[in-house]
Design a protein that fits this description.
The chain is α/β, with parallel strands linked by helices. The chain is 32% helix and 19% strand. The two termini are 26 Å apart. Bound molecules: ligand RRO.
């Protein structure tokens, strides 16, 4: 299989998966296409308690991209492990699933990781230390190297499955955070999360989103994602799941040439829920066009 890629905990038939938060737990997506075509699926970040999310509106389109402030809306870890993951296991037993943990203390991250480990169909877990839309969560952890190292270390000690640390672009030196995650024992990195942005509604003279700021995603952040992935690839051999502005098979190849080992699709899912299956279907043709026999061949290309 020329699309196959291998990462810690993940033997994927192709490198494409929806990014965390863009397909929730897969149930709505499954009405649009057969989830079995996906390389993997990342579920919405899970907190200990269920969360309703931030004040509405939570999403808006800007000329530069999609802005979200969902505010970690999710059903809570017990529902994820008791209902959402079993639904995926029953309906798509072959589909590799990646969990995502988001806590408000290191202890909470550890507890969520332990609970997600109980689900039989969790292949790997992302530690989301980069949500830009909640106070005292996400960024509070992901912007400090020592915290990232300690949080990763404690979660690794508590987990049977490989952990991928999800990095924020809202920082001056992403390499510093990537290396802290590596020292903590991360199996890989997922990068990048969304970039803090503000959209203003001239009619109300107020922010377009209920929370004020949100996280920017879409094509505008692709060059940033590529640059950051490339920069981290120069100093680390950790597997990287690349995310940020991917909406075509060409984008997938660019991201892998920058140094990614697999990719996630985010904002594009909002514009077209069939983005992932379309990108996967296009990959062989586009690879032929550029003379690429198999994806393993271009992973982490050096330049
Ligand atoms: O829920 C969100 O507002 C959210 C999260 Br947890 C995240 O990691 N990234 C993002 O853009 N939004």
């Amino acid at each position: 299989n020329r699309l196959a890629v291998k990462l810690p905990g993940l033997e994927l038939k192709n490198p494409v998966m929806p990014a965390s938060g863009t397909c929730w737990y897969g149930q709505e997506f499954a009405q649009n296409f057969d989830l079995n075509v996906l390389g993997s699926l990342v579920i919405k970040s899970t907190t200990i308690q269920p969360r309703d999310g931030n004040p509405k509106p939570r999403t808006t389109e800007t000329t530069g991209g999609w802005l979200n402030s969902n505010g970690l809306q999710n059903v809570g870890v017990d529902q994820v492990v008791g209902a959402k993951l079993p639904w995926l296991a029953t309906n798509f037993p072959q589909l590799p699933v990646i969990g995502s943990a988001a806590g408000f203390s290191i202890e909470e991250y550890v507890t969520i990781v332990q609970k997600l480990n109980h689900a039989p169909n969790i292949n790997a877990i992302e530690l989301n230390v980069s949500c830009p839309n909640v106070a005292h969560g996400g960024l509070a952890f992901g912007t400090d190297p020592q915290t990232v190292e300690e949080l990763t270390k404690q979660c690794v000690a508590a987990s049977q499955v490989p952990l991928y640390v999800k990095l924020t672009p809202n920082i001056t030196d992403i390499v510093e955070i990537a290396l802290a995650a590596q020292r903590g024992g991360a199996a890989g990195l997922t990068m990048i999360n969304t970039l803090t942005g503000l959209s203003i509604d001239l009619n109300t003279r107020k922010p377009a989103l209920g929370n004020g700021t949100g996280g920017l995603s879409g094509p505008a952040i692709k060059p940033m994602a590529l640059a950051m992935i490339h920069k981290v690839r120069q100093v680390s051999e950790l597997p990287i799941i690349g995310v940020g502005g991917i909406s075509s098979a060409e984008d997938v190849l660019e991201m892998m040439m920058a140094g990614a080992n697999a990719v996630q699709v985010g904002a594009a899912n909002y514009h077209d829920p069939l983005s992932c299956p379309k990108i996967i279907a296009q990959l062989p043709t586009v690879m032929d066009f550029y003379g690429i026999d198999n994806l393993a061949q271009i992973q982490g290309a050096q330049f």
